[in-house]
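Fold tokens
===========
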Amino acid sequence: MEITWYGHSTFGVEVDETSLLVDPFFGNPKTDLDPSDLDTPDYVLFTHGHEDHIAHAEAFSGATLIAVPELATYASEEFGYENLIGGMGMNMGGTVEAGDAYVTMVRADHSNGIMTDYEYSAGPPAGFVISNTKPTQIEDEESETFYHAGDTSLMSEMRDVIGPFLEPDVAAVPVGDHFTMGPMQAAVAVDWLDVDYALPMHYDTFPPIEIDTEEFESEVAGTGSDAEVVVLDGDETFTLEVPR
């Protein structure tokens, strides 16, 4: 599995022959790319409808969209998405097959209104667990699993559900504070999730979320977690290879 960070919360994920793009927003200082520089992925995933997560959604409208029904309907009407997963989107707790990948939608604690000429309800915010095998109660040590937490605060579901049952190997967690978790709470999330690798995201885009990532690394170490913090440069790829 290859995971590329395009800055902020925008990630490209390659699972075998399937490409996925999470939260397309290229108006951030970490990327040198324009949406037109990327091929249209097979699937686009929206965690929620704030502009810093869907600002460049229209550029990828040829993909199949994975989002909650309210947000999927909005994207269909506003951005021209014709292919919605399941014909209408999906919701919390569901798992869908997306080419060579499996995508499970999980909770995120955040807000999700879209401000246009009026405020449009985009349904609940979400996170995604992306894996190359279908999640089951039978432990699969060969599965490769990436958790994109979305915009969220610390929540016990990370400790009680996502970590023990969906078993992510690597987690992208927001660390910028102010609008989401900051370094301390994000570090607790990493510990609860029991991941091998932690990728900080959602920082340095705007003045309120500028941080020193060394603070996050220190906080992770302070929890006693064995997770390796991988601070990616914009447009850099992390390759997840679970030992066979």
Observations:
- The chain has a mean pLDDT of 95.
- The chain has one domain: 1-237.
- The two ends are 14 Å apart (CA to CA).
- Residues 1-237 form a domain with the Metallo-beta-lactamase; Chain A fold (CATH 3.60.15.10).
